[in-house]
Amino acid sequence: MIKTTFKIEMMDCPGEESLIRMKLQDLDIIKSQNYDLKNRTLIVYHAGDYKSIEAVLASLDLGSHLVESMEVETQGEVNGDGIQRKVLWIVLIINFTFFLVEIGAGLISESMGLVADSLDMLADAFVYGMSLLAVGAAVSRKKRVAMLCGYFQILLALLGFIEVIKRFIGIGELPGFQIMIVVSVLALIANVVCLILLQKTKSNDAHIQSSIIFSSNDVVINTGVILAGFLVWSLKTGFPDLIIGSIVFFIVLRGAIRILKLSRS
């Protein structure tokens, strides 16, 4: 077994990590990929020469270069996926459950903030699902799933933007700020739990690091929806809800475009 470390200067977000992982899926010699987004490094456990891996990374033009390559006796560092898979499954289930809760609550309360946050939860669930699907799945199948997810998220985000515009130019009812606040607080608690579970793995694996970033972003978004709920309550206007909804819809749209790019690469 050979352990090869690469420095990738432009790998600073889950989008680049997903792109690299998908491209490397085509190489049969790779046994495991461990990413460290914070330090922008990739450790690959593989058989044979590392040149084919280096060539794929170079083709992505992300500023990659070899750090070191050495033989290792055991694959102990590669194993341990079981705990990470369990954590990813838990995070996926929590995100999809709160997508259902928030989309229902958002429609009932007529809150664009909750609807948008629910789509962000769904987008995260898609990413976690694709991470789990990557293990043992054909690359072509993963790319098709990624493309479908991307188009579906774009459709939902555009429909959300249309609804926000209609409410900006029209006079609608005040969104139910009580439901906004209560449901967003519950979602915030759920995302904090996800964040704690992910951080407890103490892993630099790509899926775990990506999940930590997503959960951290969700905590910020949940806080924004809670703040919007209090502003709706105090100002007696629905504009704060529309503003936070627009911001989150943009985040969902940006994530969907990124997924489409990596699915076509």
How would you portray this structure in words?
- This protein is an alpha+beta fold and 265 residues long.
- The chain folds into 2 domains: 2-71, Alpha-Beta Plaits (2-Layer Sandwich), CATH 3.30.70.100; 81-264, no CATH class.
- It contains 8 helices and 4 strands.
- The two termini are 28 Å apart.
- The relative contact order is 0.16.
- The model has no long low-confidence stretch (mean pLDDT 81).
Q: Any chance you could write out the topology, listing elements then pairs?
A:
Elements: E1 2-8, H1 14-24, E2 30-36, E3 41-46, H2 51-59, E4 64-71, H3 81-109, H4 112-133, H5 139-169, H6 177-200, H7 206-235, H8 239-264
Antiparallel strand pairs: 1-3, 1-4, 2-3
What count of domains describes the coordinates? Answer: 2
Query: What is the number of strand segments?
Result: 4
Shape: elongated
H and E string: EHEEHEHHHHHH
How many helical stretches? 8
Please tag this protein with its features.
265 residues; alpha+beta; Alpha-Beta Plaits; 2 domains; 11% strand; elongated
